[in-house]
Specification:
Number of helices of chain A: 12
Low-confidence stretches of chain A: none
Oligomer: homodimer
Structural class of chain A: alpha/beta
Strand order of the largest sheet of chain A: 2-8-7-6-5
Distance between the termini of chain A: 45 Å
Number of strands of chain A: 12
Strand content of chain A: 5-15%
Mean pLDDT of chain A: 97
Largest sheet of chain A: 5 strands, mixed
Helix content of chain A: 25-40%
Largest interface: A-B, 86 and 86 residues
Shape of chain A: globular
């Protein structure tokens, strides 16, 4: 029954996020969360902001966060756009920069086709190569959105490849760097050279703050102004006082972020070898997950779940025999390996 | 320069929110914030939620908040939709329920025409009566959004009038109750009787939590499902862990909310008389602000500002000679009155 629904609401197929189970004592390797807590400085800043000033609206420009992000990336605050999670930043970029056709890979973040549909765009779906790398040549010209490293493959493009795409584009190129801090090359240096590249970042993975909902965009000031125009036509105050305080503190604590992302990258590389030895076809990942092929993937996922370990599998035909396994702590990864040894 | 902007971004005229000055020691009566702090239970709940679990995504269904709101309003959790501020709830309602023409008054919340424009709708602007009341007959039939009490007038419609509009509608009627807790009649009882009414509420005014960004919708489950479809096509996790904890605690502390809204309503009624005696044409308000006409309004606002008191004036021609004054504490209102006595 869809009585009273708009045509748009009736027509869309929403994105389906990974499960957030309410069961306790599971090993949750299904939604690419960080196994380590956020910076203690971020938690302290949030607690300090939990005061009577909550009666007042937050700063609509999120000034303290834009300053912290600008300092981190060596750009100006006018190059930063703040959002209620990088999903919101991406949704606003889709509205601010795309009018018609937007290119993205067949296997990538499955929210891209949903935004294209919600905002009346025409997706041009580019199949990945057989080895799951992005066919750079097919992305030359037009507008596109590319996750780098790509998800759920984990495979990165080089900065030279990204630059070639930005140079050849007729419009805006959106680079979604949700997983970039785990060994990818960031496209932020291109922001100063090109007026048509938008880099999207999030605190959900590298900063251990998925529960805070904070993402941001880095781009030429003209593009940031377009994103502001959409934001101010939708929701003037998207970032609450607590998230502004926590995000600014987390961005400023680079030493903490570098430490936990390095540990996760090392864990990934170690268990990539171990999972390969167990018979998985593991793609070369520069993210905080491994995309592991196995003819018996569906059954393995079900058996892992019985043992309290949750991983993710996608329905799309090309990747049905693969599991996306988030990198946990070494202890969690050992538990995974032990369970897999039982199952396989 | 709007190079690389989408047609949509280039065409829109964003909403302009009231100023959030960074000056200290001002009396801020310009954006309808609550002069009293939020419930101490809400602040406590936020501090408790500021922990290592922030590394995990929040509950995408905001279950604890939906349960608290449902208990407060005597409905079921399936009748509640949670949003990052009531602006987001309204923006999602515009997308979920309106396809073509949407009616609203010429003088009302100035974000309505912005959402209509962003989402490609045709606004049918109904002029308020000369006494700034809503002409109910003109709202019979079609779809509409009505702020009740209206803003910036503060004048309410009765529940019977709202029911007449809902009954006669061809589609969905959205009732924006941002200011309802200061003496208005809520349309929530209509949700059980009619499949086509959506009530929008916020914690920003009555609960003293403008800085937390939390709003919600109450409606028949079918309409909530439509809003969920839009939300899950835009941003799966709009409410962070801190806002979920704080909002649930604030909604549960009805005694605290009732107390501060009663104090504010009493202050409003007292200073309505005093401002009338000072020569203002004060509209009969059931909100947390007074809309005060004076031939010298523009100058009075400037003079108040010099004295550290900020109020709001709107550009629209019919209301240029009026100031919207948020109800502060009795001490703040006394300071306002003293300043006005100097100025006038």
């Amino acid at each position: 029954m869809k009585e009273f629904w708009s045509k748009k609401a009736a027509a869309i197929t929403p994105y389906v996020a990974g499960e957030q189970p309410k069961i306790k004592n599971i090993i949750k390797l299904n939604t690419n969360e960080n196994p380590y807590p956020p910076s203690p400085k971020a938690i302290e800043a949030i607690k300090e902001a939990a005061n009577d000033a909550l009666r007042l609206y937050p700063d609509p420009q999120s000034t303290i966060v834009r300053e912290a992000a600008a300092a981190l990336h060596g750009v100006d605050p006018e190059n930063i756009f703040c959002a209620n999670g990088s999903d919101e930043a991406l949704a606003i970029a889709f509205q601010a920069f795309f009018d018609d056709v937007v290119k993205f890979p067949d296997i990538t973040y499955s929210f891209y086709p949903v935004w294209a549909s919600l905002y009346g765009l025409v997706p041009e779906i580019i199949p990945l190569n057989d080895d799951f790398t992005i066919p750079v040549k097919s992305f030359l010209g037009g507008c596109c959105v590319i996750a780098n490293p790509n998800a759920p493959t984990g495979i990165p493009l080089s900065l030279d490849e990204i630059e070639a795409i930005v140079k050849a584009a007729d419009g805006v190129v959106v680079i979604d760097e949700a997983y970039c801090d785990f060994g990818g090359e960031s496209a932020v240096p291109l922001v100063k050279k090109y007026p048509n590249v938008v880099v999207i970042r999030t605190l959900s993975k590298s900063h251990g703050l998925a529960g805070l909902r904070f993402g941001y965009a880095i781009a030429d000031a003209n593009l940031i102004t377009a994103m502001d125009a959409i934001k101010d036509s939708f929701n003037s105050y998207p970032i609450d006082r607590l998230a502004q305080a926590g995000a600014a503190a987390a961005l400023a604590d680079k030493a903490y972020t570098d430490n936990i992302t390095n540990i996760i990258s090392e864990t990934r590389d170690k268990y990539s070898v171990i999972l390969t030895e167990l018979g998985f076809d593991v793609l070369p990942s520069k993210s905080n997950f491994l995309f592991c092929g196995h003819p018996d993937a569906e059954n393995i996922m079900a058996e892992l779940r019985k043992r309290g370990i949750i991983v993710r599998r996608f329905g799309s035909e090309r990747i049905q025999d693969r599991l996306r396994i988030t990198i946990g702590t070494p202890e969690q990864m050992d538990a995974l390996v032990n369970a897999l040894k039982e199952i396989i």
